[in-house]
Amino acid sequence: MPRTLDPELRRALVERIRFYNALGIYDFYRRETPGPGRVQAPEMLVPGVYVEEITSQNLQPESGEEMSPRKATAAAMPVAVEENIFEVIAPKPEQGVSDPVKALKIIREDLGDCTRCVLHKQGRKQIVFGVGNPAAELMFVGEGPGADEDEQGEPFVGRAGQLLNNMIKAMGIERRQVYIANIVKCRPPGNRTPEREECATCSPFLMRQIAVIKPRVVVALGAVAAKTLLAMNSSMMQLRGRFYDFKPAGVRDPNWDGCKLAVTYHPAFLLRDPRQKGEAWKDLQMVMKELGLKAPAKA
Ligand code: URA
User: Fold this and answer.
1) Contact yes or no for 163/276 (Cβ under 8 A)
2) Where are the domains of the chain?
3) pTM for the complete prediction?
4) Class of the 100-291 domain?
5) Is the CB of 160 within 6 Å of ligand 1?
């Protein structure tokens, strides 16, 4: 059974990969493990670089210090024994495919009749890949399919989906103009929250979808989406109200510098607590401003 990284360590690793990517470094090499149960220390092939023991602490730049390229190359990249971070940063079959429809199709084919996590044997009817404009400027990411989505094979088609449609309309656009997907593509039984491991297994496919679509803004709907995309373990209150610079780790694309990511409440939460709709509207207005959207005039 694959083991997942500690979220802090994962966040630090993602940051580190982004940092290397920003320097134009995309290729990483794995060194053989020194023994069973030890953390693998993948090392960039930089002459004379020694890879040290890895903790989330020694990945962080010291306080008040900008990480210099030299220092970065001298630091280690962590990988937990069985989590294959190399899959995240390895070249993908859709890379270089300029037509996003074709590229998304390649990702869907790669996903196949997925059995990578336990959700495949816990009653899912079908994989819910994602829907919408393959060149969307705006993308919404939810948690995982519910019963209606599992039935229809499309994200956000149930009650929460109706509210999401209304939110999209209130932003002055239509559902078909955006792209909608989830962190996990299979329905968790009884609509339970997806486990961290399920999110970690499935989300690389979503990251690839994002890298193909190249939206200007991603809106994370709810805590599961926000925490998984940002690899941060903060509360919704801490996560909302600002933009994050976002680029899936390992993406090498000279035509895309990443996008902005905003966090808002999940529509299912808003159905349970409609008093929070005003707060969600503030989040969406921030997104509208970024995209130059205007709310439609009231009839
Ligand atoms: N909730 C989600 O997070 N996603 C869906 O697709 C439907 C409900």
Assistant:
1) no
2) 7-89, 100-291
3) 0.78
4) alpha beta
5) yes
